[in-house]
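Reproducibility note. Readers wishing to regenerate the assembly model reported in the main text can use the exact inputs given here. Chain order matters: entities are listed in the order in which they were concatenated for prediction.
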Amino acid sequence: MQKKDCVLLKCCRLCGNKDIIRVFNLGYTPLANSYSNKNVSSKLKKYPLGLNLCNGCGHLQLSHSVKPEKMFSNYLYKTNTSYKNFLHFKNYANKIKKKFSRKGDKILDIASNDGTFLNFFNKKKFFRVGIDPAKNLKKLTTNKGIIQIDDFFTEKTSFKIKKKYQKFDIITANHVCAHVENLNDFFRGVKNLLKDDGIFIFEVSYRGSVLKKNTFDTIYHEHLDYHALSPISKFIKKFNLKLFDFEITEAQGGSLRVYVSKNLRIRNKKKIKNQLIKEKKIYKLFNINTYKIFREKINNCKVQLQRILKDFDKKNYNIAGYGAAAKTTTLLNYFNLNKNKTIKFIFDDNKLKQGLYLPGTQIKILDPRYLFQENLDILIIFAWNYSDIIIKNIKKKLKKKKSLKFLVPFPKPKILK
Ligand SMILES: [Zn+2]
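Running the prediction on these inputs yields the following structure tokens for the assembly.
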């Protein structure tokens, strides 16, 4: 375990190569999920945030790694918070059940969060174990009748689990690999617990989607990696595990779901090969120039948005935001949007966040029902990739006479009446 709060990553997390190049620098930001009270918020420590590209395997990762205990022991993100997320996991679980499972299968979910995903596997048919370091979520999982271990998943914990529950038929790990300090150790742990005919399925955010959709705000300290199939496929081989299928899904703005087994199953060889070619030749994911273009797009937007907000400030407009997600911290910080305390509040549906302050700012998070009581002129939609749905919902509840305007900050600032 790392001793310092934050360390520079000197080599590639997947292939170990030291030849890594900085392709994006986002300055210093506080930890994106460190919601706290007013006094603590402005004093939060800031950590360097940058992206490095590996010249060996083409992996993209953060420049620095922050100690996991700083980020995940009291976690306010709940899988169940958004309905869209809930549906994603429901469909995902149904697919696994239909394609791979048998009655009595043992399933282990790594980073099981509030147990939403495991709960889609009927308790009468499956033996369900979850592991997650977030102690505050354990009660929610246990209430669902799931065995929950409150710890980080490592090779060491895998031995403890094996001793108690033996090996598993299905192991899943959704949106956790990018949080893991030592991926080699993590994969050794998975291999240790996987039955010979078992399958391991994991989902990670997909770099191709980040670049295509400009979702630069998904870059924060919790996400150490920005995965693509090519580097991942090389990495998996190291453990003598076999990649037999993959999917690109819509989760978290674009994700890569990878199917792995110990013994070769029917492999989608052609599909995998095509994707590897696309990543290299069409998306150009391993080309430095791709990141230069990405940076320029984001910086252009930053300049435009600062200009718009300066103008609103002069007019003394009442401005608030919607969506206090982790990515809002990246966007606010990198775009330097709150220089003059322009934004009064941020509204968010997650009750655990309400009453707290957005990391590093003096912006209080409020229940969205207050939105209709405040005399607002502008509402910035920080969950900009869901802006259509959010605006539609708010408009339904707004009285006609209100003259609230919506500002969608990204990928291009847009003002909607
Ligand atoms: Zn590498």
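We highlight two features of this model. The chain has two domains: 79-286, 310-416. The longest strand covers residues 194-205.
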